[in-house]
Amino acid sequence: MPGRHSDDLSRLRVALTVFFALDGFVFAGWVVRIPAIKHQTGASAGALGLALLGVSAGAVVTMMFTGRLCRRYGSHPMTVVLGVLLSLSVALPPLTHSAVALGAVLLVFGMAYGGINVAFNSAAVDLVAALRRPVMPSFHAAFSLGGMVGAGLGGLVAEHVSPTRHLFGLTVVGLVVTALAGRTLLRHEPPRVPERAEGVPQDGPRRLDGRTRGRVLVFGLIALCTAYGEGAMADWGALHLAQDLHGSPGTAALGYSCFALAMTVGRLTGTTLLERLGRTRTVVVGGATAAVGMLAGSLAPSLWAALIGFAVTGLGLANLFPVAVERAGTLAGPSGVATASTLGYGGMLLGPPAIGFMAEWFSLPTALTSVALLAAVAALIGFVTRHTTTR
Predict the structure, then answer these.
(1) Is 247 helix (H, G, I), strand (E, B) or coil?
(2) Max CA-CA distance within the chain?
(3) How far is CA 45 from the centre of its chain?
(4) Residue 195 has pLDDT above 50, yes or no
(5) For residue 202, with 0-12 CB atoms within 10 Å meaning exposed, 13-18 middle and 19 or more buried, which class applies?
(6) In order of start, what are the domains of the chain with their CATH numbers?
(7) Of 76, 104, 127, 379, which has fewest CB within 10 angstroms of its CB?
(8) How far apart are CA 216 and CA 52, in angstroms?
(9) Residue 318: closest CA among 197, 227, 210
């Protein structure tokens, strides 16, 4: 029945939105407690940096593996299983008392974090195709909102609640939310689409043959260019405002807040933008907007002009990653999502150290212009491949 089918799709959309928000909430809750965990373990800055690589290593290694598991067992069950693992693993860091032990538990946490990102993005790709509306940005907006709430709540409780109690609280919240939202996913198979989207074979997403792999890699490159900017802004934006533009600590902290808020707003309005402009124009306009915004943010002589530039950058980058992941998943299913996500996550890892090296060689403002350069590259890729990829 059409009405029942529509209700099922609506329930799936709500459930997946909840998982996206939970992912951002849990990850942000962990991030704000890193200073306290550093103090607890007695780790030096270098040792802590190596331990934190456990998150990255676990995520990158697991992403491609999760794509295969989603093909075999389904993206819905994998999302639920990894939601449980993510919720349980976030409680482990406060239980460690050395950098080595911290690195080991963060490897597990990273595996869950990377895996669930592939699983629920794969499920979202199927749902977007069934809905026949470009709603992918709304899921990523939920992730951003969850992160903002998680960071804000973590900041409020940091002085009053121990990391152990705080992160155990995140475990409880995560398990309850996973149980409630997971019931919907487990009750419903991923929706089947009677008519495949243009450019996708009738028998479903292609496996990664040569031609499809190339097209998926194109979208992965767009994701990389976008995530590079996110990683750079998170780690270096505040320092630029404080060091180069002499902002106060509070004002400098506004830099990433402006960027993150603008990105959230951009994603909340992303479906409307995609319906009006289409995917290609959204990528081209978004990349160009981010490039202009970041040039202003990195080279502007005044603090407030830089803050405006950061906000414009967030608006420009907002929908590039969701579009890239959705198109990769439409072409190659969970394997496509895994490939694009891995490249995107690699960009987020590459950004901060690359900015650091360039800042030593030149200056931090000059190094931050690389974000503008890669945003322009994403726009160029979208334009050059407009006839064979995005529509």
Answers:
(1) coil
(2) 64
(3) 25
(4) no
(5) exposed
(6) 2-187 (1.20.1250.20), 210-384 (1.20.1250.20)
(7) 104
(8) 29
(9) 227
> Does the structure show a pLDDT above 80 at 196?
no
CA atoms within a 13 Å half-sphere pointing along the CA-CB vector of 108: 14
Amino acid at 261: L
Per-residue confidence (pLDDT) for residue 108, from 0 to 100: 96
Q: Which positions ≥6 away from 304 have C-beta within 8 Å?
A: none
**What token pair was written down for 174?**
């995560």
On whether the CB atoms of residues 336 and 208 are closer than 8 A, the answer is yes
* Block residue for tokens 């069950």: 77
How many residues are present in the chain?
391
Specify the residue for token string 């999502």. Answer: 337
Q: Determine the Cα–Cα distance for residues 387 and 390; give it in Å rounded to an integer.
A: 7
Residue 25 reports pLDDT greater than 90 = yes
Q: How far is Cα 267 from Cα 285, in angstroms, rounded to an integer?
A: 14
CA dist., res. 69 & res. 177, Å (int):
23
Instruction: Quote the pTM value.
Output: 0.83
Residues sharing a CB contact under 8 Å with residue 339, sequence separation 6 or more, in sequence order: 64, 67, 208, 213, 216, 217, 220, 328, 332
Residue 66 to residues 2, 108, 116, 229, 230, Cα–Cα distance (Å): 33, 14, 8, 25, 24
Q: Which helix (H) or strand (E) holds 98?
A: none
Please answer whether residues 5 and 125 qualify as being in contact, where contact means their C-beta atoms are separated by less than 8 angstroms.
Answer: no
Determine contact, residues 329/337, Cβ cutoff 8 Å: yes
Write b or e for each residue in 95-118: b if 16 or more Cβ atoms lie within 10 A of its Cβ, otherwise e: ebeebeebbebbbbbbbbbbbbbb
For residue 79, name the pLDDT band (cuts at 50, 70, 90).
Answer: very high
Tokens of 249: 């600590």
